[in-house]
Amino acid sequence: MTRLPGSYPLALLIALFALVPVGVLVSLASDTAQLFDTHNLKVLGNTLALMGLTVLGSILIGVPLALLTAYVYLPWRRLWLIVFAAPLAMPSYIGAFTLYAAFGPGGEINHLTGIPTPGFYGLPGAALVMTLYTYPFVLLTTRASLLGLDASLVNAARTLGMSLGMSLWKVVLPRVFNGIAAGALLAALYTLSDFGTPAIMRLDTFTRVIYVEYNAFGLSQAAMLSLQLLVIVGLVLFLESRVKATRERPGRRLTLWPSRWQVNALLTAALPVPLLSIVLPLAIFGLWLVREGTGGFEFSYAWNSAYASFLAAVVAVVLAVPVAHAAVSGKAGRLMERVTYFGFGVPGIVMGTALVYVGLKLPFLYQTLGLLVLAYVLRFLPLAVGSVRSSAESLDPSLVKAARLLGASPKEAFTRITLPLTLRGMIAGAALVFLEAMRELPATLLLGPTGFETLATYLWRVYEAGYFGRAAVPGLLLVLMSGLGLALMLTGERRGEFDVTEDSKR
Questions:
Q1: What's the predicted TM-score (pTM) here?
Q2: CATH number at residue 262
Q3: Exposed (0-12), middle (13-18) or buried (19+): which is 253, by Cβ within 10 Å?
Q4: Rounded CA gap, 442 and 434, in Å?
Q5: 20 to 30 Å CA-CA from 225: which of 117, 255, 322, 451?
Q6: pLDDT tens-digit profile of 297-332?
Q7: Superkingdom of this entry's organism (predicted)?
Q8: What CA–CA distance (Å, rounded) separates 324 from 5?
Q9: 256 three-class SS
Q10: Cα separations (Å) of 500 from 11, 138, 144, 355, 469?
């Protein structure tokens, strides 16, 4: 009789626990008779339009920048990659906030220069902001695919008389279609889950209307809208699961050597993107900091953010260990792991709505830090699971077998061999959970204890109150913390690129 891995029972409990918010929403939504109405059609149309425009914009920006950073020889190539990927280091609601404050009549640009500028709001403004902060998904996934291609087919096409542009269009891009699709689907998921940008841009999408219904004590209707949003999210997640990375035998990498004026022209064409997404928000925050200082800001807000995020990171890693080890033990474990990934696809506003109801039914949890930490864990547990699983998969099974042959019990082999060797993945997973929890806005707004202000919620309060100048310190701190997350991502990307290069030399 085959003995089940010891991690399976715990992993199963954690997987079932991850499905609790969906069960709560179904139960809560059954109390309302308003399944669908004409207003829902408008909300659905706005949501799908924003998602479609964002995906289109992220592809139109991300793919050319991927080609530029992967194939074109640029001075300070690594620096340009960081510049173009930097929007990942900034929550989109910060970009929406500063873009809204900078442009339009009476905006900061108009106030400083006297030059009238158009305002950004509604669907065009939201689509612009979401594109500026999601195109790096397409950039990074497409670039990873490009770096794995052999340049020989392009060289053959050029030899047969095809122009460089046509060879890139007909030879290269079809081979990286899956990479482009993977990034586009990530951009779609981010757009569906985002709350701050549609709210600031005054666009009625599912996330904004759910928050409005919650504030109007329409918890049942908010749950119904949440389930409708989850159907769309589930469809996108299904499509994402069907996209498989294309693998080719690595060969010589294509490198283009443009002249100096061509390099300058390419960079000039690309610079408006980081100027709008990174430089403008930092400049606006810097202006507000000089003008108003730190008035009204208390550093206890930063401590609250760090404390809650740290607790979530510790709990997430503890729960991730059995799930990750179950995933590498067999098919049933991999299924349990996929179930826990569902929480990452649940928008924060949806998770918050479900757990508010849990808090109402369990008064000892309502308006407590524990309920907020629970929301963070359910949302970002997949980040910890992925990191721990990657470390566990790289372990040599013979080490554990040798320990068992030498008389170690399964528990002793795990604590003395497996756990220390997966510590690096655990630390990386905890860091990612910590940084994402620091940025989380909607779940914190709905579940934060009374008087418990974080960087994200304080930024939201000053926006609602119209005291834009007070957003400088929390905004800059959030950008700084998010930048650490980007550094982790780029470190992993650089390690992966090095491995491909080393393999190609052998």
A1: 0.85
A2: 1.10.3720.10
A3: middle
A4: 16
A5: 451
A6: 888 999 999 999 999 999 999 999 888 888 887 888
A7: Bacteria
A8: 12
A9: strand
A10: 33, 20, 10, 44, 47
